[in-house]
Amino acid sequence: MLASATRQTLARRPWLYFVTPSVSSTDALLPLVRQAIAGGANIIQLRNKTLPPTSPELRLMATAVRDLARANHVPFIVNDHVDLALDIGADGAHIGQEDTSIAAAKELLAAARASDFILGVTVRDAVQATAACHAGASYLGVGPVFSSSTKAHANNGETINVSGLGAVVAAANAFDVPVVAIGGIDVSRVAPCMAAGASGVAVVAAISSAPDATAAASALWAQVARS
Q: Residue 94 gets which letter from DSSP?
């Protein structure tokens, strides 16, 4: 685990946070992650909703992405699976409102003595944000801000818009917990999210579906860094 790197990244903002698409093989994923990092992504999250949690391929994928992120001094986060993240020495995990509870995750972290572990939590409003911050979230993933194919079923397809993002930022600021905007974000939507107080943006399709992933990441990073 890159403890010093993770602390520095949480303190150093802004962020371009790349969330991987659900692909079936490690060989298909690694070139995409490599290109995202080359373009400026400075946090990587492995998110795979198709492979079973105990799948050998998921573990292989997580280990390979961890190694690639580590070689580039980029923190690596595992979505949903706190136990897997701890087991392979990832820098953190991200959980949603319907995943492992923050309390349960904290118990796992305490048992592993993982004091530097990053724990991200998905929220959509100020009430959830306040609860997550009280419970010890390291950062908040907030959204969907805009309509998104990746999160089409989240919150029954309802978006929180930039105004909702701003309300969550205000709640999180009381705890000095950073906020990452997610959901339907492309180059044209970065500036409004950053203006609302987000510490960065998280994207999937804006990089993974682009003809040139490195160029797409670079364009996104230029907007993030400018804000």
A: E
Instruction: Calculate the alpha carbon distances from 38 to 27, 210, 224 in Å.
Output: 18, 14, 15
Residue 226: is it exposed, middle or buried by C-beta count within 10 angstroms (0-12/13-18/19+)? exposed
- For 40-74, write each residue's pLDDT tens digit: 999 999 999 999 989 999 999 999 999 999 999 99
Report the SS3 class of residue 78: strand
Task: Report the residue count for the chain.
Answer: 227
> Do 15 and 42 meet the contact criterion of CB atoms below 8 Å apart?
yes
Rounded CA gap, 99 and 132, in Å? 13
Cβ-in-10-Å burial (0-12, 13-18, 19+) of 56 comes to exposed
Instruction: Give the pLDDT of residue 98.
Output: 87
> What single-letter DSSP state applies at residue 204?
S
Tokens at 72, concatenated: 């580039």
At 11, the amino acid letter reads A
- Identify the residue whose tokens are 């904290």: 106
Q: How far apart are CA 198 and CA 142, in angstroms?
A: 9
What's the number of CA atoms in the CB half-sphere (13 Å) around residue 115? 1
Identify the CA nearest to 222 among candidates 32, 89, 39, 83: 39
All structural domains of the chain: 13-225 (3.20.20.70)
